[in-house]
Amino acid sequence: MLTLFPRLEAWFLRRSASLNHPRAPFYAALIVPLLLALQALLLGQDDGWDMRNYHLYNPYALLNGRLDIDFSPAGFQSYFNPLLDLPYYLLTRYAPAPLAGFVFGWLHGLNFIPLSMIARQLLPQRQRVALLLALAGCLGAGFLSELGNSMGDNLTALLVLSALALLLRHGVTAGVGMLLLAGLLMGAAAGLKLTNINYAVALCLALLVWPQAFWRRIGQAWWFGLGVLAGLAATAGYWWATMWRLYGNPVFPQFNDIFRSPLAAPLGVLDTDHLPRTLGEALLWPFVFTRDMARIAEVPLRQLIWPLLMVLLVAYAVCLLSRYARHRSNSSSVASVSAVAAHHAASELAGQPLAPAARVLLVFMLLAYVIWLKLFSIYRYLVPLELLAPLLVWLLCHVLMAAARAQRVAGWALAICALYTLPFVTWGHSGWTAEAFRAEAPQLAQPQASVVYMVRTPMAWLTRFFQPEVAFMAIGSGFPESPAYLQRLQAQAAARTGQHYVMLPAAVNIRQSGAERKLALARALGLTASAADCARLDGWLRKVRFQVEVQALTALDAAATGQACTLVLQAQYRTDLAAEDAALQSEVQGHLAHYGLALQPAGCRTYPAYVGTEAHPYRLCPVQRLP
């Protein structure tokens, strides 16, 4: 066992020797994004909650002028800047769905390029290590969970890392043009997705760390800040101006405790459920959320990189304090030869100090993390830092330890962190179909006078399948309603004198799609064609639990299909969908009564809808106003 690790290390060094080739960075920049694009294809069609809630609705609303018609069908997210979601919407609307998944996987994979540039800048003589650290960054749980989907964190991380790469590459020599360009990229990221604002602030302040004249530092931060403002104006200026004109709040309805729009409750950041609850939790937050990822993520992500990084940061802080104490002690007395020798020996043991560019990176990551902790504490907003985390782990290990030991400790620690994320989870996928989104919608007799109320999310993706004149209005679905908001909604609803409806999710057995896939496989293998085949299939299924069982077809059905049997879910996995629909209707009745509406169950109709191969049927029920 003692010789196993050295043998594995030697094998790995031999296998990765080609990364030292001068052309290796170029080939890696081509291959890694392509591999990640292929992985996105393997994952399947994006079927995440946010996609069905607002990533499709917002660009649809932008292109079809729905701000004057609808009322927050996607909740408060209805008013997020739609520019970031526009490429995904257009690709899935006019191109085959697998192509959209491949393109977005490739775009996300491009993060490898600025990440490897940063690593090679900080490790100029260690090209192989730099490329491996960049690859390790792309194996983080958060980044992989969003690979190829529409959530936007991976896509805007490309802008954040590009800005950081430019500034670290040019350092103290960065001129006005380069500072403006880097700021423009960072500002664009923040304008497209406001949760990136912490990276803009952190990098602006981190520029003050460069070892140069004070006013030169201020100047660099100033020009970078101007670039950030220009980037914000370019990607969010139009939208913020529109929100200000319509609602009196450029980031409506968020931060309404500051802007005080009468059309929303006076609240600040609307999603505060993930924040630490005590000071102790905040100080130990990486350990807290690693133990219980539900505190900062809605899916069970697996990661170890953050507690590892915190341990190293604490050790580095202790090391700095120790060095400072030794320096004060040595400067207050005459140092003997032995004391000087001991000091040099300790310095050699602790490795080399951080280079100026590495200190900028460290300050940037610390500040960005602290702002994230205070404002959001939602894991997916940490993607840029997660991508950089393996590099910082490597740098800190080399500060705290001698080179040979640091390489071994960091290498094995990062390998364990990467393996621990596997198998990684995502925010939801379904199987591929040529058309990403499909749904049937009724042709209403008076669409210009009709209203569809929405009391559940995420259902806003269905709006584009209705006639464009129909108005969609959410009531009690998470939007911070104010009296003025409700008054405006009710006035516009009353002006539409046609039939009003409420849209509800239809009950669906999530295991049914799995049963259908198993049936398709059994038929492809010829296991349902005859009575003998069905008997053999039934025998296999009795030995292996697949949640399905064989059911013989009637003579009439067998003649029509050419099959002798089918597969159905076992009794314990079947659900009474009609009863579930009735229970939801009963629950919604009380909710609608609060808004002066009554649901008419007899008129409810169910319509099919699909995201890829996954069924998301919905029900449309007429409502009437209570006297």
Provide an overview of this structure.
The structure is a single chain. The longest helix has 34 residues, at 214-247. The protein contains 26 helices and 13 strands. The chain is 56% helix and 8% strand. Strand 11 (609-611) and strand 12 (614-615) form a beta hairpin. It is of the alpha+beta class and 627 residues long. Helix 8 packs across helix 20 (383-400), helix 11 (176-192) packs parallel to helix 13 (214-247) and helix 12 (197-206) runs antiparallel to helix 19. The strands form four sheets. Strands 4, 5, 6, 9, 10 and 13 form a six-stranded mixed β-sheet that branches. A three-stranded antiparallel β-sheet has the order 3-11-12, with no helix packed on it. Among the domains are: 172-270, no CATH class; 512-573, no CATH class.
**Low-pLDDT ranges:** 334-349
Radius of gyration equals 29 Å
Determine the fraction of residues in helical runs and give it as a percent range. 55-70%
Mean pLDDT: 92
* Straight-line distance between termini: 81 Å
Total of DSSP H or I helical runs spanning 4+ residues: 26
Number of beta strands: 13
State the secondary-structure class. Answer: alpha+beta
Shape: globular
- What is the makeup of the main sheet? 6 strands, mixed
β-strand percent reads 5-15%
Task: Output the keywords.
627 residues; six-stranded mixed sheet; 8% strand; 26 helices; alpha+beta; three-stranded antiparallel sheet; globular
Gist?
By secondary structure, this protein is an alpha+beta fold. It has helices at 4-15, 24-43, 49-55, 57-63, 86-94, 97-109, 112-122, 127-137, 141-145, 153-170, 176-192, 197-206, 214-247, 256-259, 279-283, 285-291, 305-331, 337-349, 356-375, 383-400, 403-420, 483-494, 512-524, 531-543, 555-561, 577-593; strands at 45-46, 429-430, 437-439, 451-454, 471-474, 500-505, 548-552, 565-569, 597-599, 605-607, 609-611, 614-615, 618-625. It starts with a helix and ends with a strand.
